[in-house]
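In response to a reviewer's request, we include the raw inputs and outputs for one of the modeled complexes. The two entities were modeled together in a single run.
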Amino acid sequence: MSNRPVPDMASDQAAVVGSFPPLQTYSEEENMMREAVKKYAQERIAPFVSKMDENSAMDEDVIKSLFEQGLMGIEIDPEYGGTGSTFFSSILVIEELAKVDPSVAVLCDIQNTLINTLFVKLGTPAQKEQYLSRLSTDMIGSFCLSEAEAGSDAFALKTRAEKHKDYYIINGSKMWISNAEHAGVFLVMANVDPSAGYRGITCFIVDQDTEGLEICKKENKLGLRASSTCPLNFDNVKVPEKNILGQIGHGYKYAIGMLNEGRIGIAAQMLGLAQGCFDNTIPYTRQRVQFGKRIFDFQGMQHQIAHVATQIEAARLLTYNAARLKEAGRPFIKEACMAKYFCAELATLTTSKCIEWMGGVGFTKDYPIEKYYRDCKIGTIYEGTTNVQLSTMAKFIDKEYDH
Amino acid sequence: MGSSTSLVPKSVTAAINAHGFGYFGCPHTFGQVGYRLKRTEQYIRVKPDNSSVVTDGVKHSMNPFCEIAVEEAVKLKEKKLIKEVVAVSCGPQQVQETIRTALAMGADRGIHVEVTGKDYETLGPLQVSKIMAALAKKEEAQLVILGKQAIDDDCNQTGQMTAALLDWPQGTFASELSLEGDKIKVVREIDGGLETIKINTPAVVTADLRLNTPRYATLPNIMKAKKKKIANVKPADLGVDITSRLEVLRVDEPPQRQAGMKVETVDDLVGKLKEAGMV
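The model returned the following structure tokens for the whole complex.
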């Protein structure tokens, strides 16, 4: 006969009793979203991960299901077919997706934190009408800033937009553009007035089928292979004036602003990557027996495992706090830099250690661990290298002592 | 909403007993979900005093068969064969989460029957069926769909008891369900194969594994679910006495599985069996 003991309230589901709940306190909506994405990722993405990595191609059905689940328009208003949820929900979604496949997570991250946010914040009613409902239902966007000669030094970009009457002609090329293979719209940073330096940088909306826009062969990458990364060529691409997003010459501001937020998204991606890798490794250490006991039971292993687990927890708190700060409208840039920097480094440490703990099998493609190891490296490089993050943080620290 | 047919039952409300928590969310039900799920590492432990299982920190979620029941009801509504889907759950505050999941899958509104503390510990199929019967009458439901059993207690009683209390026909272990006029055709999974029956409405149906594949709650639907109403009700309000007639004496873990041994030949096997006194 059944006996039903009263469940204790798990700490992260308890109603807020005091005024300062722990960081791992989520609204009911956030909990439900996370559970839904976790289940979806396990059932609809996990089976394709290894194939997508090998073929360096995102599965079309996976992309379609991301839209169907409402994961590509998390903060977009339901009026435009979006989910109408919050930034923190996006962060949780990205983290959950990254546990299963960081490539899928980055697709979702760029769409939500860069593309959608730019349209929502800067779009005219006409632009929002035209693009937001597509972005939430079936169209992927790409953010085009970097060039061969302009990476960390983004504002040294050379792509030129020449004004003619009521349109612009864009010439130049971009490099390292994520999602390019599947994107329907490109947000292109081009300079309308090189003599003004970075103050000439302007953001243009360029549709994928515009004449003169060439999406070149994707890079053959070490990791995040399912996410397409392509060079783009602009050969006299004609773009109407109404396709300028925001104001002329303000593109540099938008880029910096968006990347501050996108940083938290990348932090969430790296965090999920580390957690997913860890979750796939510990069960093995509890099963594998050598010298008559589980390898988990050796003190050397325990110390390493506990150290990594601590780093993951710290990374999680940094990321969640940065996200909550942003949502609260408080200054968050230094914390966002810290989160991205820490999570990327932590992902590298975790994946490296996990391969060691798995031993020989960790080194084979039969197990998912080596993929996490390859995927993590880009974390310290894209959306602001580790050195850039550190320098940005230092500037803030310097100012803090300015009295 | 009988569109083309007057055959569709009037004022059809399907009450889903999302035996999530308890009969709709029995948290300890979910506890045991832990060791049955393929990926999770959670194992269920019996408390040191052998009174029950440990539920602290054990993840809880909607009973899988209840998910299937909710999905079936939502599908019927999408086909415009029923008017409204009401999700019901009995238990403490936490069951509201399970009801919300049902709302996110497409149920229209929820009813939370509040049962807490000691009462909740002893809540069993008989009490829940009394509650379901009372609600079915109150809501004038034409169809009550439940999961065939909860995966924590495996009782497989609530559906049958509810039908008996209401004196309604029942279609249990349904792997296929269709409305035909004012009757329901149910294909049941039985030991010998499949049995097809036709029952009058109002009726009780319990969902088996192959009835459907439950949908994911999409994020937009989770947001919409926030606006849907969950009414609060107490068993006393329904005139139901939930005192248990049973007392659990003890709960024990199954014996540890012993290692087996390999033998070379059939003769060896027979020999070993004889030694163990089994032959």
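As requested, we also summarize the result in words. The CA atoms of residues 217 and 247 of chain A lie 32 Å apart. Strands of chain A lie at 140-144, 160-164, 167-178, 183-191, 201-207, 213-215, 229-240, 244-245, 289-290, 293-294.
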